[in-house]
Design goal:
The complex is a heterodimer.
Chain A (H helix, E strand, L loop, with lengths): L2 H12 L4 E6 L5 E4 L3 E3 L7 H10 L3 E2 L5 E6 L4 E5 L3 H12 L3 E5 L3 H6 L6 E3 L3 H8 L5 E5 L4 H12 L5 E4 L3 H13 L4 H4 L2 E2 L11 H16 L5
Parallel strand pairs in A: 6-7, 6-9, 7-8, 9-10, 10-11
Antiparallel strand pairs in A: 1-2, 1-5, 2-3, 4-5
Chain B lengths: L3 H12 L4 E10 L9 E5 L4 E3 L7 H14 L3 E5 L6 H4 L6 E9 L1
Antiparallel strand pairs in B: 1-2, 1-5, 2-3, 4-5
Classes of the chains: A alpha/beta, B alpha+beta.
Chain lengths: 228, 105
């Protein structure tokens, strides 16, 4: 790879622009396919397949050619509502797993007390915070506060978005009451079925770090559903 | 830690004056541990980050990377149980992988 092409590729990744590096493995020639195409490989006949692979975030060889397409997509995001004790474990776990993490909490003391290094923090009410975040199809949203006036607006915003995962901390009883309130806000049962509650895979977790493991495991399970 | 970490590592090594190579899984068959696109960055001090298998073939890839860094000519390596090198660097899982190794210069 030419150093100049590496710099261009890194610039696209930094700008969160989905991009593909196409390599002719027979010769080592390479092209970069993003908003435009630059490089040494003639790609006209394969641009359709390359763009499809970029959209599907699926790297792979193009059949009956020596071309390999490496897709670089922006990292998935995890939005954590509530900088509580569990968040202190969930933030680093999610970062290790490759997520960009945003933490929303209007309580400044919670944001600064937690070990949230590397996460983007938004000190605001969840309804305003969620407007800044604008969850997309590669975003997971987890509410951890237990407090309806913080959790409910965040869940409502998440339900109105294409977020791929929505989880809410709380016991079955708490969750049933939460669903009742959200039904009162006009959400249907099929909307509410998107919320995972009690949140996380059932691994008998007890401590906050264990609960964080169960949550990130369920987020990954959902993100990768159908990948195998 | 995402796969782009290997690219960042290569840029950092180059800035420090090291020779570098990038290995990429370009095809897999059967139960291979790392999917197509997985990256591993290697420098001329045999240091590497990332992975192209569960640790079975990284040593052989580092070897090949040293050659590629010197020659500047990329190489495609095939690993699998049917490979003649199987006893040395075969994949215990029974899968097969093809790895493309290129110098970054």
């Amino acid at each position: 790879m030419k150093a100049r092409l590496l710099s261009q590729l890194q610039a696209c990744i930094a700008a969160k622009e989905p991009v593909a590096l196409v390599t002719d493995t027979a010769t080592g020639a390479q092209s970069l396919v993003g908003e435009d195409v630059q490089g040494d490989v003639p790609l006209e006949a394969h641009l359709g397949e390359i763009k499809r692979r970029i959209a599907a975030d699926k790297s792979g060889a193009i059949e009956n050619t020596s071309l390999f397409v490496r897709v670089y997509s922006p990292n998935p995001r995890l939005v954590v509502v509530g900088a509580v004790h569990i968040a202190q474990s969930l933030v680093p776990l999610a970062q290790i797993a490759g997520f960009e993490v945003v933490v929303i909490d209007p309580r400044a003391a919670f944001l600064t007390a937690g070990k949230l290094a590397g996460a983007t923090t938004i000190e605001d009410w969840p309804d305003d915070g969620m407007k800044l975040v604008r969850p997309d199809g590669r975003t997971a949203v987890v509410t951890l506060t237990h407090d309806p006036k913080l959790d409910d607006p965040a869940l409502a915003a998440a339900l109105r978005s294409p977020a791929f995962y929505i989880g809410a901390l709380g016991s079955r009883k708490t969750h049933d009451k939460r669903l009742q309130r959200l039904r009162g806000d006009g959400f249907t049962d099929s909307d509410l079925a998107r919320i995972r509650g009690p949140v996380g895979l059932d691994i008998n977790a007890i401590s906050p770090p264990e609960i964080a493991v169960s949550i990130i495991a369920q987020v990954i399970e959902t993100l990768r559903a159908g990948a195998k | 830690m995402s796969e782009t970490h290997a690219l960042d590592q290569i840029a950092a090594w180059r800035a420090a004056g090291r020779k570098t190579a990038l290995a990429t899984v370009v095809q897999t068959w059967g139960s291979s541990p790392r999917p197509a696109g997985s990256h591993m960055a290697i420098n001329d001090r045999n240091e590497f980050v990332g992975s192209v298998s569960g640790g079975c073939i990284e040593g052989a890839v580092v070897e090949a990377a040293r050659e590629v860094m010197t020659s500047g000519v990329p190489k495609t390596l095939d690993f699998g149980v049917t490979n003649e090198m199987a006893w040395e660097v075969g994949l215990a899982c029974g899968g097969k992988v093809r790895v493309f190794v290129e110098a970054v210069e």
